[in-house]
Amino acid sequence: MDNNKFTIRPVATSVKVGLACLALAGSALAFPVTAIAQDGEVIEIRMQRYTGTEEDEIFQRLQNMLAEASDGRIKLNIFRGGELVPNDQMFAALRSGTLQAIYGYGGYWGGQMDTAVLESGIPMAWTDLDEAKELWNERGLGELLAENYAEQGVHYTVPVFGGKFDLLTKEPVESLADLSELKIRATPSVSAVLNHFDIPTVYIPPQEFYIALSTNAIDGLIYGGPYDYSVLKLNEVATSYTEMNMLYPGFVDNVLVNQNVWNRMPEDLQETFMEVTAEWADYRHQKFVEWNEEAAHLFEITTLPESDVVAMTEAAQEVWDAEAEKSPRAAEAIEMIRDMARDKGRLE
């Protein structure tokens, strides 16, 4: 949310300057368009993800799954974040055909597409995995996003649901009232919710979390889950973890394919790509679950009362309204979110 999660696992920042310049210029010499094969021939797809070396193994799994399911007819060449183009330019590169597929996060191109931010996650939009799946699969958000991406020349495959997005503090927190005297690090959209309850907030980048907590510059932060906090070694300076039910999954990624590339792909391989990517997305989410479970013992965990969740949902309406104002389609998506919140008893 608000690019909050990008440094949960370090992303490669170095860019091959000459290569990137050619990519941004759409150089056919730097990135020749792979010929899409006829039945029985091999298809090569160039994909960039926004993550770094720490996720090589999990993306190698996707490559292997596609190759096996297609009997070797799909060859996915995956590049790490920033290796071909800067991460914040992946979507533009995908639309132009410079990249043929991406593993991305809508927050990177929120200024280019009216539903990208809400797709990636806004406060109180969904509070558990079942709600998120219901919103995508039953209430029409997935179809709406697919239509919107198609208008951008992009084929939307599946959502990839991420991990937790909760509160870490130095002292136990059992209600929103406990936060009134604390200074909490939060992103702008989260701050917009917390400010309704007179909770002081400030934004600092992840690389400053440890020092800020250890020197009492902040009293807590909303950033990720137990695993994320343990990776940053924040359990050395803060061990009170509060499940806020503000947004879970805490972010939603996606796998996108250039529409021209997709259209040239044989129908049987389109079906294989969709099925395998969906299976891999479930596996990836389960890894987030496992990582958080393994790190949970490092923290003392409490949960906000349901009354606070209802109050935060009402406070989030300002954020939801801002997204709805972007376009009629964004307004339609927000209404899906509101309808679900009402049905779940979180909104009147």
Descriptive report:
The chain is α/β, with parallel strands linked by helices and 348 residues long. It folds into 2 domains: 17-161 and 251-296, D-Maltodextrin-Binding Protein, domain 2 (3-Layer(aba) Sandwich); 166-248 and 297-343, Bacterial extracellular solute-binding protein, family 7 (D-Maltodextrin-Binding Protein, domain 2). 41% of the residues lie in helices and 16% in strands. It is built from 14 helices and 11 strands. The protein has helices at 17-24, 56-69, 90-96, 116-120, 129-137, 141-151, 188-194, 209-214, 226-231, 259-264, 267-295, 306-315, 317-324, 328-343, and strands spanning 43-49, 74-79, 101-105, 154-161, 166-169, 184-185, 201-202, 220-224, 240-243, 252-258, 300-303. The strands form 2 sheets. The chain has a 6-stranded mixed sheet. The chain has a 5-stranded mixed sheet with strand order 2-1-3-10-4, with helices on both faces. Helix 7 links the parallel strand 6 (184-185) and strand 7 (201-202). Helix 13 runs antiparallel to helix 14. The protein is globular. The model is unreliable at 6-36 (pLDDT under 50). Keywords: Signal. This is C4-dicarboxylate ABC transporter substrate-binding protein. InterPro entries: DctP_fam, TRAP_DctP_sf. It comes from Billgrantia tianxiuensis. Pfam families: DctP.
